Amino acid sequence: MASPPEKPISSIARAAEIGQILMRHGAKNLAGALGFIPSSSNVIDPREFHPAAVVAFLRDIGPVGIKLGQLLATRSDLFTEHWITAFSTLHDQVSSVPFADIEPVLASSWGEDWRSDFAQFDEKPLASASIAQTYSARLRDGSEVIVKVRRPGTAARMEADVRLLIRLAGIVEARSPDIARYRPVEFLRTFGRNLAWEMDLAAESRACERIGAYLDTIGVRSPAIHWELTGLRVNVQERLYGRPASSLGSPSGDPRVAAFAKSYANAVLRMIILNGEFHGDPHPGNVFMIGEQDVGFIDFGSVGTLTKARRDEIVRLVLAIAGEETSDVTNVLLAWAGEPKVDRDALAVDLDQLIGEFRGTVLSGIEFSQIFSRAFDLLRDYRLVLPPDLAILLRTLLTAEGFVRSLAPDYNIAEETRPIITELLAERFSLGSARSGLKRLRGQLLGLSASLPDILATANSIAKSGYVPVQLDPLSIEQLAGLRNERQSLKGPLAAALIIASALLVDQSWLLAGGALVIAGVVLIRKS
């Protein structure tokens, strides 16, 4: 189902339009610094930016500006509350495109006789957003489906706007050190990649199937995809029937609603922590209560992905907070921020104070939103910027917590996370995981085979002479002077030998390999 590419939009023409938008909203100094109008100053002062004007500017840019503003509304680590409130007014609700403009997209995807695939097709859209519109239909076999169609011209305009915004961000980075620390170019590149992915309706369908396969294992529904009718600009999926979660309203005391809310939150947490790929926008409009209390997710246009390494970091952070290990919390946050130059001691003191605020508090009395709010205050104070992949995670968690609490006020997302993290830890330290890790270690050790002759020659010399040849840099002698009376120890070499033996034995005997590791641990722990 190949579709003709959309005609690209001239960057020069679009730049002129954006320059006019800046002028219209009183950003004359910024327009001058960016080169839209003649100016004697290239200095960009962030204090000139005001929430209302920035929001109006983003709204006038169009779909890219609106989606960018929605993303910024989730970045409490970057913006204060009055900025977040302003960004939150940007809604992805747009006037629908007439079906006469949509039909050519269907014809180019399915052929001129596309109607022959349907027993019924309602030309009135169910919903209209900046990227696509959705329609209800029924296939010839009686299947009720949802047809999602990308709005014509959307891809070309969005791609042009993202390219232009990245170039402008580069200029801003060069001319404003205060803004450069937020890495706007990196942020916008990530935003652009995610937006391009969202415009690919086939990619959305693949994500729906992948995540849906996991959700199915925990009893949560997602739409089946009709691949014979799905492509880049159109997808067709099963229509799920049930009560939209947005219609459930405030707490009603109905135990089925409370059970539904907890099942929904459990699904979100398990997608994030155990699956690593998750629905990135699980707001009530994208969730259904099916039957008595079953959960169903739709619209996988926004998806978050966490690598195994990132999930391990998150678990490490949670465990460090729970164990009041301030130094570990500091290390994780600074690693996420790209190891910037900050006063680590002062940050550690502030983090210890933050942890202390929740010390001794009953777990059910803690809200993630409280923790995030306080943590984000610290991040802003120290000018620490979280990596872009965590932004969608935080949005998802806060969306889930807010929605669940609206239906089940006694629900505590932190408490419910504990058994899931325990499950993750069990997975990480399972027999199979340990065996896999040892195999990787063995592979790395075998990779040193090129140096083996030299190593063996050195070992033979040591064995014969009883001496270890050592070279010291003159500057190191002073540092070693205080250690001259300490007794040499063979613990390190012996433990290393045992670990190597364990790696080599792992395929022949798991018991022997494990025994070697245990002895290595005893050697390292034993005092001299």
TrEMBL record:
Residue ranges annotated for the ABC1 atypical kinase-like domain, each copy included: 90-331
InterPro entries recorded: ABC1_dom, Kinase-like_dom_sf, UbiB_kinase
Keywords: Membrane, Transmembrane, Transmembrane helix, Ubiquinone
Membrane spanning residue stretches: 494-525
Pfam family, one: ABC1
Record's signal peptide: none
Xref: PANTHER family: CHAPERONE-ACTIVITY OF BC1 COMPLEX CABC1 -RELATED, PROTEIN ACTIVITY OF BC1 COMPLEX KINASE 7, CHLOROPLASTIC
Entry's family note: Belongs to the protein kinase superfamily. ADCK protein kinase family.
The protein's name: Ubiquinone biosynthesis protein
Species lineage: Bacteria, Pseudomonadati, Pseudomonadota, Alphaproteobacteria, Sphingomonadales
